[in-house]
Write a structure and sequence with these properties.
The chain is α/β, with parallel strands linked by helices. The protein folds into 2 domains: 153 residues, Medium-chain alcohol dehydrogenases, catalytic domain (Quinone Oxidoreductase, Chain A, domain 1); 126 residues, NAD(P)-binding Rossmann-like Domain (Rossmann fold), CATH 3.40.50. The protein is built from 10 helices and 15 strands. Strands 3, 4, 5, 6, 7, 14 and 15 form a 7-stranded mixed β-sheet that branches. β11, α7 and β12 form a beta-alpha-beta unit. The structure holds NADP nicotinamide-adenine-dinucleotide phosphate. The site of NADP nicotinamide-adenine-dinucleotide phosphate has 32 residues, from α1, α3 and β9.
């Protein structure tokens, strides 16, 4: 038996529920690989699950290993796996990510972008997938359209800004003052500092809004749309009356990571068309601090657990 270090959660609750433990190293089954995890992304959904906010429609079996986003090296392949081999550097969705060794389905990993470190690659899977599917599958964004990205500096928003620009759309982003230059550097033509300016006062008649903020931002998202425009929201629902009054269309969804999309992202990154941003790194033993920071709801890029060099 090989024992490994991992973070586990035994009950719903605060960050103190994240405990560093020794467990037996998992084994890759048919259609899976075992990945030596070098880095794990910390997504807001990780603390929402831990807190029990999603337990009605996504109940957890305890104990569980938190996290989804991984980057690392294949340690072993399960039965029937031909697409990958031991020693390859990969990234994608792990079945639990805050751990030294994670099992992943071959359908949710791809070769790591060559230009990136493991820490950088771990910022991509959920964030980029959510941005891509929201803009293109649900938002039907086309070249020449005007799109507002709310939460443009975040782990999802930074990809949404870049993908929308890559598509040829005109991009307006929202961020706090500290992140305005960063969002502009991603390709947004206009950046609204939401801390000093009411977004709905300065943004009108856009074709699409991608809302990665939720709460109080949602009414401004609806008001910024043209009649018949589309709001794609990944963090809550806008007031139904306002939606009706403004005659807009609302889409919400859960992102689904796939090898195909991860390959597309790797190409866009290796060709220099899309960049990534690591907000802060923490060691595995400081997963609690990482969650506390994520819960603040502010920052630039994705928080990462650096697990191995
Ligand atoms: N449905 C799905 O499949 C799905 C997938 C991924 C994420 N999500 C959800 O989407 C949300 C965003 O995720 P994330 O990973 O991007 O989070 P994140 O990395 O924590 O980023 C949050 C960003 O929101 C910005 N922000 C906060 N308040 C704002 C406001 N009023 N106006 C504009 N920007 C504001 C912050 O920028 P400042 O520091 O400048 O304030 C920060 O950059 C979370 O609620 C997450 O759970 C849903």
């Amino acid at each position: 038996m090989v024992s490994i270090q991992t973070i586990r959660v035994h009950n719903y609750g605060g960050p103190e529920q994240l405990t560093l433990e020794q467990i037996e190293r998992p084994v890759a089954r048919e259609g899976e690989v075992l990945v030596r995890v070098h880095a794990a992304g910390v997504n807001p959904v990780d603390w929402k699950i831990r807190q029990g906010f999603l337990k009605d429609f996504r109940p957890m079996q305890f104990p569980y290993i938190p996290g989804v986003d991984i980057a690392g090296v294949i340690e072993e392949v399960g039965q029937g796996v031909t697409a990958f081999q031991k020693g390859q550097a990969v990234y994608g969705q792990g079945m639990g990510a805050y751990t030294e060794y994670a099992v992943a389905s071959v359908s949710t990993i791809a070769l790591k972008p060559q230009k990136l470190s493991f820490d950088e690659a771990a910022t991509i899977p959920v964030g980029a997938t959510t941005a891509w599917q929201g803009l293109f599958d649900y938002g039907k964004l086309e070249a020449g359209q005007r799109v507002l990205i709310q939460g443009a500096a975040g782990g999802v928003g930074l990809f949404a800004v870049q993908f929308a620009r890559w598509k040829g759309a005109h991009v307006i982003g929202t961020a706090s003052r500290a992140n305005v230059d960063f969002v502009r550097s991603l390709g947004a033509e206009t950046v609204v500092d939401y801390t000093t300016t009411a977004v709905e006062q300065v943004v009108h008649d856009v074709d699409l809004v991608f809302d990665g903020v939720g709460g109080n931002a949602l009414p401004s998202s609806v008001q910024a749309l043209k009649r018949g425009g589309t709001l794609v929201t990944i963090a809550g629902q806008p007031p139904a009356e306002l939606v009706k009054e403004r005659d807009v269309h609302v889409e919400s969804f859960s992102a689904r990571v796939s090898s195909e999309l991860l390959q597309t992202f790797a190409q866009l990154i290796d060709s220099g068309e899309v960049k990534v941003a690591v907000a802060t790194t923490f060691p595995l033993s400081e997963a609690r601090q990482a969650h506390q920071l994520s819960q603040s709801g502010h920052g630039q890029g994705r928080i990462v657990l650096h697990i191995a060099d």
